[in-house]
Amino acid sequence: MDSERDPGEIDSELTALRLLHLADSALPIGGLAHSFGLESLVAAELVGVRELPEFLRGFLEEVGFVEAVFCREGFRLGSGPPSEHIGDQLPNFAREWLALNDRLSAMKPARESRSGSASLGRNFLAAVGGLGDFVVVREALRFSKDTQGLIHHSVAFGLGSGVLEFNEDLAVLAFLHSCSASLVSACQRLLPLGQHAATRILWELKPAMVETMKRSGGCSVEDAWCFMPLLDWGAPGTGDATVYQLRFGGTMEFAASVEGMEREPRIEPLARHHLAGALRLDFERDVLTGQTVLARSHQEAPLKVVRAFAVDHGAALVHLHNVSGGLLGGDRLKLEVNVGAGAQVQVTTTGATRIYRPRVDALATSQLNEISVSPQGLLEYLPDAVIPFAGARFSQRTSIRLADGAGLFWWEILAPGREARGEVFEYESVEFKTDLLAGGKLVGVERVRLDPKKRGLASVARLGAYRTWATFYICRVGLAAAEWIEVEKDLREVLGLLLRREDALWGISTLSAHGLIVRCAAKWGRDVLPGLQEVWRAAKWRLYRRAAVVPRKVN
């Protein structure tokens, strides 16, 4: 009977068996050695057996989605020209292979997650390379070794699947299942989770895996969105389970002004046509005085800067004004800041950025930020929070380019809404797209899309009990990786000295190069800005031996 079967059918069965083999979570590539931050979340009692199914579904919707997109890109690289013709394509292949892995590194802010993914990817690709003479696999390993580049698990799985001529959708599904199985296995070691319960959880996740696979098919790496800040926090730097929970006493100017603003009765702005505002600021260092000056500016309402103030150490301070009082649907704003060689600039806002509810037929409010810092320049971007009102739609795209020797302190704070009015996560959508290039290398990529009505932000997979979210980039191009590890250790000590309570979580990790990232998730907005300022003071002193002076506000 078997001899009469269609050879193609037998080949198909053999291919399926080989895919199952490579997707087996027991494949000896080190998968059981990594929890990717889950251990810290369990230790902090943020994830337990009851919350586990919701957490894993959220993992597939967010992190799994991004990994699936990159797995597809790896697959397309692996299923390119036949091996006998790959020689002519090697330069292009090398460039695309390295860029794909570098991009995923930049999207993984936590060092433990980044290194864990790279360990699995390298081991997986080496395992595939041992199964036959695959030129593409051999060259991919060589290129990454020669450039000291990372090989991420999803990209490696995709590449190997393409080389072995698996079906693309089935390969992505197999990868997602493998990752989910590894996480469930980790949960069995960390939680009182029995074998039968673990099996049921993994079984019930399969529809979510299929949905994630389908969503990833129509997405590029440029638009692969992910928001799972608690998991980022759970895998800070070395992946230890240290919880930095900060408390701040005293009255802070920011908290008083924002909360007071929220409590006052407010008249919504009159209807108007959407605005297309622009603000360009060019700063230069005066070679005679050493003072940074605002050399040129171009202003189109509603964005405005009145003047540049001279502050300590020859720096210049400017306040961003929005003369319309807030942003309405359809408004399109552009901010361009160019910091010249050796110039030092502080940029802050005069208050919180309010995103109002748009008319039904209006487009989303959008803002484009283009930032450039020349050699030995320094930019400190220290704004107040963005507050999206109920029904608001907001999209922001930021591009930051740092030349050799340039420095950056850049934070952003997203409030859940007008908390004092009980308005929490009632906005329609918020998007942040950020690309940070330092010394020509992509070191930070954020793709955050928040749709509270579609995917609940109070889920343990996203913010859980926390409401306000902040990101703080700290960079100085040219410092060695070992030096950044020491800076991170120093800042961890600063966080550890602060008073602690359960109202805020703080995590810190080195980027893939040239800097650090600090994450915060807080129950109350009043806890965020003081914490960022404490980290900023310590980091500026550590990197520049200069005191960080909080910019004074003007109206």
Describe the secondary structure blueprint for this structure:
Blueprint: H1 7-23, H2 38-43, H3 52-78, H4 90-107, H5 111-129, H6 135-146, H7 153-163, H8 168-190, H9 195-204, H10 206-216, H11 229-234, H12 253-263, E1 276-285, E2 292-300, E3 303-304, E4 309-310, E5 316-322, E6 332-339, E7 344-349, E8 353-355, E9 365-373, E10 378-382, E11 386-388, E12 393-402, E13 407-414, E14 429-438, E15 441-450, E16 468-476, H13 481-497, E17 504-510, E18 515-522, H14 528-544
Parallel strand pairs: 1-6, 5-7, 6-9, 7-10, 8-11, 9-12, 10-13, 12-14
Antiparallel strand pairs: 1-2, 3-5, 4-5, 13-16, 14-15, 16-18, 17-18
Helix pairs in contact: 3-4, 3-7, 3-8, 3-10, 4-6, 5-7, 7-8, 8-9, 8-10, 13-14
Characterize the structure shown.
The protein is of the alpha/beta class. The chain has two domains: about 1-220, Urease accessory protein UreF (Orthogonal Bundle); about 255-265 and about 275-545, no CATH class. The chain is about 35% helix and about 25% strand. The protein contains 14 helices and 18 strands. The protein has helices at about 5-25, 40-45, 50-80, 90-105, 110-130, 135-145, 155-165, 170-190, 195-205, 205-215, 230-235, 255-265, 480-495, 530-545; strands at about 275-285, 290-300, 305, 310, 315-320, 330-340, 345-350, 355, 365-375, 380, 385-390, 395-400, 405-415, 430-440, 440-450, 470-475, 505-510, 515-520. The strands form three sheets. Strands 3, 4, 5, 7, 10, 13, 16, 17 and 18 form a nine-stranded mixed β-sheet that branches. It is globular. It starts with 6 loop residues before the first helix and ends in an 11-residue tail after the last helix.
